Amino acid sequence: MSGRSPKVVVVGGTYVDMAIRCGQIPPAGESETGSALSYRTAGPGPTQAVEAALCGCQVHLISKVGGDPFAQMVRNSLAEFNVSTEFVYTAEAKNTGVVVTLVNATGENASCYYAGANTALLPQDIADAEQVIAEADVCLIHGQLPQEAIVSALRCAELYGVRVILNPVRPLEQRGQGSCDLPIEYFTADILIPNLYEAADIAEQSTANIRAAKLIGSDLVARGVDYAVITMGRRGCMVIDRDSAHHIPAFEIELVDHTGRGDAFAGALAAYCAIENNVRAAAKFASAAGALTCTKFGSLEALPARAEIIELLQKEDTP
Ligand SMILES: Nc1ncnc2c1ncn2[C@@H]1O[C@H](COP(=O)(O)OP(=O)(O)OP(=O)(O)O)[C@@H](O)[C@H]1O
Ligand SMILES: [Mg+2]
Question: Cβ(232) to ligand 1 under 6 A?
Answer without folding.
Answer: yes
